[in-house]
Amino acid sequence: MPNHASPFQPADAASQPESASPDPQALARKAEVTQLLKGVMEPQLSADVVGLGMVRNLRVVDDYVYLRLYVGSHQHQLQDRVQQQLAGLPWCKKVYVQLCTISGVRTTLAVSSGKGGVGKSTTAVNLAAALTQTGASVGLLDADIYGPNVPQMLGLGQSNVQVRETPDGQRFIPLEAHRIRLMSVGLLAQSDHPLAWRGPVMHKILTQFIHEVDWGELDYLLIDLPPGTGDAQITIVQESPICGVVMVTTPQQVAVADVRRSVHMFRQVGVPVLGLVENMSYLLCGHCGEPTPIFGAGGGEQIAAELQVPLWGKVPIDPRICAQADAGMPLPLQVPDAPISQIFGQIALGLNQTFGQDAREKCQPQGMTE
Ligand SMILES: Nc1ncnc2c1ncn2[C@@H]1O[C@H](COP(=O)(O)OP(=O)(O)OP(=O)(O)O)[C@@H](O)[C@H]1O
């Protein structure tokens, strides 16, 4: 069972990069605000809003405080709590709290990797499938502009995106396969053509994708990020209420440096990295069952220990993964007792203990349910 007991590392909104040259008074006030915000607890997660990475872009300009609060659809009350907590600041004329949320979505998680081709989309799809098997409602946003393969992996390769007019403007309607709701940047492009977007266009399209999809009610939204730490990842991370990252790597030593960079990027913006999945850890011999470490060994353990991120699972190489991806059927749904299905099942249960129904029941008075 993955260790989800304490997935949140201490984060300090005051330590985020300053955009302007630091003014000592503003810095002192920002530290004061951060300290106060550490007193605002999220009851289900038993952690404060700063440690959870919910407070970002905190700025103090003269006597005014500005911040963004990244929350799930069930956590809007934290906006009032933050306002109340900061109401007593003697020097503060007004606190502006911008609520950043995705309508209907409780928990947004990112699936990320330091480099391409390590199995990030495979992890996202199989984890989404494993989560649906726990009874959760799950959406998958394929934001990998370099290789948007998720529609194919769910058997939705050539589908068209429908748009609905709403009083709040246009909304994309997600596709659905195997009880997973899906939206993908790949569905915007002609097949076989690259998504050749320059910076501002890419920023606009990704932002639209995050905010203009009509997901309905979701327990989990998984975002399959593009690999690395470039513009696209930063846009997505800044625009979405990601409350944690699942980091995917391979056992190879060369993958470790990329993971390190990626983890530091998330920590810099205050987003907690919850766990590490080491993919392609070994090949199980079809005859004798002997594991062979094709891509080296030890990378996952090394980076997990160094960065203090729990290693949630070591996923073997299994040819059925490729076959099921081509067939559009996630392995946990087709072969629930395959080792890979079991590993993702355990990770899904662990996530539910932290974010799901299990955790909600724990923090409610006896006998009450939502
Ligand atoms: N554990 C595994 N066993 C066998 N094949 C795997 C495994 N994990 C991934 N693959 C295969 O490796 C290839 C790359 O996987 P995937 O597309 O998930 O990687 P990615 O990190 O998302 O890549 P990209 O950065 O290009 O989006 C795919 O063909 C996939 O089916």
Automatic annotation (TrEMBL):
SUPFAM superfamilies: Fe-S cluster assembly (FSCA) domain-like (SSF117916), P-loop containing nucleoside triphosphate hydrolases (SSF52540). Residues 30-98 form the MIP18 family-like domain. Binds and transfers iron-sulfur (Fe-S) clusters to target apoproteins. Can hydrolyze ATP. GO terms for biological process: iron-sulfur cluster assembly. This is Iron-sulfur cluster carrier protein. It comes from the Bacteria. It comes from Vasconcelosia minhoensis LEGE 07310. PROSITE patterns: MRP. Homodimer. ATP binds at G114, K115, G116, G117, V118, G119, K120, S121. In the N-terminal section; belongs to the MIP18 family. Belongs to the Mrp/NBP35 ATP-binding proteins family. Pfam families: FeS_assembly_P (PF01883), ParA (PF10609). Keywords: ATP-binding, Hydrolase, Iron, Iron-sulfur, Metal-binding, Nucleotide-binding. GO terms for molecular function: 4 iron, 4 sulfur cluster binding; ATP binding; ATP hydrolysis activity; ATP-dependent FeS chaperone activity; metal ion binding. Residues 1-24 are annotated as: Disordered.
